[in-house]
């Protein structure tokens, strides 16, 4: 899971199923305007944050990929199998070349995985060293990956590790790698400088077929009205991070439409269970869940987009018995009294300001709702960078903290969000039942047994309430009505579609 970027409802798993309506193949330009600029083209630092992750999927391929509906699909790995509980074998696509002509093969895959293992932790989203022990080549098209412990979610995690050309990434200076990265994906970069728009040009020999859009530009404007104006004037085809307020200006049936999508980002308030504090008592943490009126918060601050979740896990292995906790302040008061806090207590809530839609106001409203049941909450606001660097990463938050984590669509990975060892979990919540069920689920490859263990872990967390469960956030896009594209729930903007035979014929006629 990732720290969610603030600111997707159709799903198409087949990239060939719909074609662009903008114009003939090979002549299309799509401009994407995000609210934050691209910070790097170091592939392993681009995972799980936007706009970097959206750029990365166009330049590089991975062994596996997560589809529009968050299901795991083959990509450069055609298929894989478990040889024993700590070794997986991957059969690779044959005949694939990187943009610079180097071949993709098992040696390139081994190089790429080992580079990810050897990079400083600060540069990568997943600490792959704790997962992969070593990688071995069987032959050009076969790779074996040995894990430190049994890892049922390994194929899923490999969707985040880009495959790189070994010679280029061994012999090129770091400056040149950032300016002119090379992959095997559908688009290539000629030259990029920090602070400039990124221009992606179609790679005509892409192994899955020539891309239908000839050029994709990723640019940014931090002001929402500027992004909206660019969309309405036709200078941009996709803009991100709108708010519900833009429904009205985009409702006139013009050349752009407002597209809301329920994202995978789950908003919550983490509750630190430090020994000797009121929040160490699970009855107090449960009381806080009953004391928060999520429906009112969604109506007041998110225009009704969103509903409370019962289970934070977003996948087929989520326990369906965990239903949303109802708003019941009387029940909250009774639980507080039972825990010895009938007169309430004082505490502090940390919140980012400007990371999620109306986040600071939501935190203040939650404080006001908790005051109704006798809890006196002081709200402390932080800008996002200092919040992450000074509070979350060193695990030095106040007793309560507001955050959203994006689901990866995998039940094991999602369930791990509440594990004591998860890096963005400063709750210090440690539940032996939860940790043991999660560990056994990660180490079993029997799907029914795994589901049962995950359900037990999720139930343990639900009953112990290390979070105030809030709601799934929506992402709001503005999209050119002639662009045949639908946002994904994970926020990834993926625009590759192969040229269809009809498009290719049309393009040929125009050339002739």
Helix/strand layout:
Layout lengths: L1 E2 L24 E7 L17 H8 L4 E3 L5 E3 L2 E8 L2 E6 L13 H13 L13 E8 L2 E6 L6 H4 L8 H6 L2 H6 L7 E3 L8 E5 L10 E8 L3 H9 L5 E2 L16 E16 L10 H10 L2 H8 L27 H10 L6 E8 L6 H14 L2 E8 L1 H9 L7 E7 L4 H5 L16 H12 L3 H18 L2 E14 L20 H11 L1
Parallel strand pairs: 2-11, 2-12, 14-15, 14-16
Antiparallel strand pairs: 1-16, 3-4, 5-6, 6-8, 7-8, 9-10, 10-11, 12-17, 13-16, 13-17
Helix pairs in contact: 7-9, 13-14
Counted by DSSP, the helix tally is 15
Average pLDDT confidence is 90
CATH topology (level 3) name of the largest domain: Dipeptide-binding Protein, domain 3
Please outline the major beta sheet.
11 strands, mixed
Distance between the termini: 50 Å
CATH architecture of the largest domain: Roll
Structural class: alpha+beta
Helix content: 25-40%
Principal-axes geometry comes out as: globular
Structural Rg: 24 Å
Tally of individual domains: 3
Number of strands: 17
CATH class of the largest domain: Alpha Beta
Strand content: 15-25%
Indicate the low-confidence ranges by residue numbers. 6-27
Query: CATH superfamily membership of the largest domain, which one?
Result: Dipeptide-binding Protein, Domain 3
